[in-house]
Amino acid sequence: MNLILFCIVGVVSLGIVFLYHKKTKKTKDTNHKMYDKRYIAEKERKKKVQKGRLEKRKTDSIAVLQSLVYKDYEISSIIIELLHDSNDHIEINDTLDDFEINTIENRLGFALPKSYKIFLKYFGDGGEWVYANAVDSIQDFSFLKDYRKKLGNTIQLVGERDVKVDALLCLMTEDSNGGAWVWLTDEVKEDNEWSLAYYSMMHEKLFYKVENFAAWLKILVICKNEVISELDKDFTLELG
């Protein structure tokens, strides 16, 4: 009799435990679903806010770039086209004001190219994906020597000269091919409109010098692809 009673109690206990776990699991599933819904809703809300903010930025920036102050700068029309194609870009950083740019220049110890400063003020401080190119935030600036630790004192600019690594300021530290676009800051040019060149990790040299930032950005707007892929048509760099 005691054995039968014991078995009954055991079965009932197991049933209670089973029902408890089932109820707990259902509660957890419900909570997860509610969390997922809240997460998705919050994500959509942020996306909507960001879209509205970017639309306002686009409208305001285009108005300024078309004004008498900027309309004669080549970079202005290029940035306007970038802004019109805002849906083709991902995670564009906020714009910078004059104070923020001056603070960065004080940290660097020299002035940035004028065309690039217009870009910072009216497009944004780089972004994860500008068409198909990453563009670093200048607030987290780096020189090539900071990123590539085993460089010598100079790097060959193919067909021209050796460039001191100290002079190579990164527009981007690494693209999808492992290379980097850098400014040649040792050049003496009006408004510091230095040339840019592409550092190939495979060849450990600089290739494809572009006249200045506006010229580089113009190539980007035309090809809407990685600038280096557009320039390396003969596959000199054996890019993937």
Describe this protein's structure.
The chain has a domain of 166 residues: SMI1/KNR4-like. The protein has seven helices and nine strands, in the order ααβααββαββββββαα. With 240 residues, it is an alpha+beta fold. The model has no long low-confidence stretch (mean pLDDT 85). The strands form three sheets. A four-stranded antiparallel beta sheet has the order 6-7-8-9. Strands 1-2-3 form a three-stranded antiparallel beta sheet, with no helix packed on it. Strand 8 and strand 9 form a beta hairpin.
Order of helices and strands: HHEHHEEHEEEEEEHH
Average pLDDT rating: 85
Q: Provide the β-strand percentage band.
A: 15-25%
Low-confidence stretches: none
Do you know the CATH architecture of the domain at 66-231? 3-Layer(aba) Sandwich
- Total count of strands: 9
CATH top level assignment of the domain at 66-231: Alpha Beta
Oligomer: single chain
> If you compute it from the alpha carbons, what radius of gyration comes out, rounded to the nearest whole angstrom?
28 Å
Give me the CATH superfamily of the domain at 66-231: SMI1/KNR4-like
Query: CATH topology of the domain at 66-231, what is it called?
Result: SMI1/KNR4-like
The major sheet is characterized as: 4 strands, antiparallel
The strands making up the biggest β-sheet line up spatially as: 6-7-8-9
Count of runs of 4 or more consecutive helical residues: 7
Helix content: 40-55%
N-to-C span: 80 Å
Molecular shape: extended
